[in-house]
Design brief:
Blueprint (H helix, E strand, L loop, with lengths): L1 E6 L5 H10 L4 E6 L11 H17 L4 E4 L2 H6 L1 H7 L6 E3 L2 H9 L10 E2 L4 E6 L1 H6 L1 H7 L2 E2 L2 E6 L3 H6 L3 H18 L5 E4 L8 H8 L4 E3 L2 H14 L11 E4 L3 H12 L5 E3 L1
Parallel strand pairs: 1-2, 1-3, 2-11, 3-4, 5-7, 6-8, 6-9, 9-10, 11-12
Helix pairs in contact: 1-11, 5-7, 9-10
Length: about 270
């Protein structure tokens, strides 16, 4: 039975690696929309249209459950998709909620009123589109009060990672952390709100300092997915094979994915 994992490019591979390790007997179909990456500089309607098209492709591949391993898609499109587009026999889930549950120390399904939590000052690093959507702050407000969130739009980081220019990516990370610290000098926690950013997690940690607790998404999403499938086993779709799809050039994307994960990855055309 197969589960779909979607990202605008290669960043979602960090989530896929974690969920494959957590659920080794589950087939996964990954779709990276590299032809239209990055999503972080697109408007909400554009992100919505591209995300719907990608999710439909994964449904066609036998994935009744699709994880949006793209924070921009989760922020700009997910709520609209769930409210008016996703049919009753399919599910589309995002990556924000597991992160916020970990930050606020709330269990899945805890629908009690928002309450004060230990962390009061949170730095959010995300794409410009994710930051402008304020989706993180909206979801956080359902669960916690009294938390000051300072968001930093990290322009250029995704492009540098996708291009394999990690020297530029590190320089941009340092610049964005410095810019945020001018507005919030002492964050207690930092959210890496893009699935590309775990590839630069050490650089974020070094720039922020050891006193800042850094939340990265992959393992949190993996645990949340395992819990969801245990409660909803019928949402594993009829697909049985694992493979990688791309809207970009398969050879070029395969080479970059292999460089990302340091093992051979073969993409095929979507």
């Amino acid at each position: 039975m197969a589960v779909g994992v979607f990202d605008s490019g290669l960043g979602g591979l960090t989530v896929l690696e974690a969920v494959r390790k957590r659920l080794p007997d589950t087939a996964f179909v990954y779709l990276g929309d590299s032809a239209h990456a990055p999503y972080g500089v697109r408007d909400a309607d554009d992100v919505y249209d591209l995300t719907c098209k990608a999710v439909e492709r994964l449904w066609d591949a036998g994935c009744d459950l699709v994880i949006l391993a793209c924070n921009t898609a989760s922020a700009a499109a997910l709520r609209r998709m769930q409210e008016s587009w996703v049919p009753s026999d399919k599910r589309v889930l995002g990556v924000f909620v597991p992160l916020i549950e970990a930050l606020t120390e709330r269990q899945w399904g805890d629908n009690s009123p928002p309450r004060e939590v230990a962390v009061k000052h949170v730095a959010l690093f995300a794409t410009p589109a994710t930051v402008s959507s304020r989706a993180f702050q909206r979801e956080l407000a359902f669960r916690a009060i009294g938390v000051d969130v300072e968001a930093q739009p990290c322009g250029g980081v995704v492009d540098a990672i996708e291009d394999g220019d990690l020297i530029l990516a590190e320089a941009l990370v340092n610049s964005h952390v410095e810019a945020l610290k001018r507005r919030m000098p002492k964050p207690e926690a930092a959210i890496l709100g893009c699935t590309h950013y775990p590839l630069m997690e050490n650089e974020f940690r070094n720039a922020l300092g050891p006193q800042v607790k850094v939340f990265s998404q992959a393992d949190l999403v993996a645990e949340s997915l395992a819990d969801y499938l245990e409660r909803h086993p019928k949402m594993k779709g009829p697909g049985t094979e694992s493979y990688y799809l791309t809207t970009g050039d398969p050879k070029r994307v395969s080479d970059k994915a292999t460089q990302f994960l340091r093992r051979k990855i073969e993409f095929i055309a979507a």
